[in-house]
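Quick one:
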Amino acid sequence: MSLFDLNIDQEAIVSKYFSKPEHEIALKKGDILLNQNEINEKLFYIKKGKLSGYLPDKKISEPVFEASSNSFVGVYSFFSKDNKSYSRVVADEDSMVNYFDGNPFALPDKDSNELLAFLFKIVIMELRSRQHFAGQMAYEHEATLHKLIQTEKLATLGQMSAGLAHELNNTIGSLDGNLRQFEEDISNHINNDEIEIVKKYYRIGLAEGLKTTSAEARKARNQWEKVKGLDKRLIKRLAKSGIDPKDLPKDVEQLEKIASFWNVGHLLHDMKVATEQSAHVISSIKQMGISTQSWSKDVDINKTLKDALAIVRSLTNKVDLKVNYHEGITSIEACSGELVQVWINLIKNAVESLINHKVDRPTVVVSTRETEDSVLMVVEDNGIGIPVDIIEKIYEPSFTTKVRGLSLGLGLGLTIVQRIVDEHQGTINLTSKPGKTKFVIALRK
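Output:
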């Protein structure tokens, strides 16, 4: 009768050959069952617990196999010619093992065939288990190696970025100083030479910048077109200013001055914001992710969004941008410059994705909201969506889905977002399907 013809009952075999009380061994966590190269003529059955095998002579700290309850160890040495254990077998937890130390060939034929068939099955199972374990370990080693490679890439990028930041820092500092002097000179000139209403709207532009959305500007344009004597260039500038026609005189010359000086004010405002943010980005690069400066206990999320929109305005002009502020939102403890970076990266990604894929009526909606325990930063677009199989990868360094030359394609944008959100002990929630991709960042109050 072939060994494969037997219906092998493991429970019966264990009861018959692996249940002698005198062959029972109790192991505490860390106890060694077998040492490497130790002579072993026993086959061990793990009644309870977990054991692992190690190769100390190879100085390998990871286990080469793991075995838990209802499995066997010592198979290799029991069946090998020299009976030497190739590994050190250690208890990972308190365990109970029983062993068989007889000679299967010395038993009566029926019992011998039954036991040999069972032992053959154990060998096959052992080979399959070891192969699976080796494959899993190889996969984990590959993943670890990949992370090390990415770390090295980031380290190299960090060195390059730090050098670039050093070179740019002096330029930004000079630009900032000159800009402040320019603002002071213009403000003195306006205060001395211009009428009060012109001063008023220059100061509004300087304080607030361009806060009108494209939809609001289109609506305002319809109102300004009803005022006689205005050319298209002046109507466009007045519509962008957000000034209500009812608040201004109808004198075209005065309107020209008001629009012109409001425009000067808002351009100065935007340049100041861009300069400050550039200085912060350079500082962040030099710190290489260590945020130790510019934290405040009363950061206004709405202001960080306004500052970000001032910087990316040339990009958002290519889409229909809708901005929804939650008025009176609670201030939080945060680094405002880094939150501006979050907005910039999310908005930039959304706009570039819409443009790259030529989405019909590309729309980006940015908003702030508030819950009982958090303030929310929300960026939503109507693009093609992010495939499910790559959603988990989008925060990895060097991963990118961009397809043309609108960016460097380094894939660091969302990595930076993840790092900043983690530093603020916040969370990122992403939902995506064709026609709607939505990032929601929650920051604790």
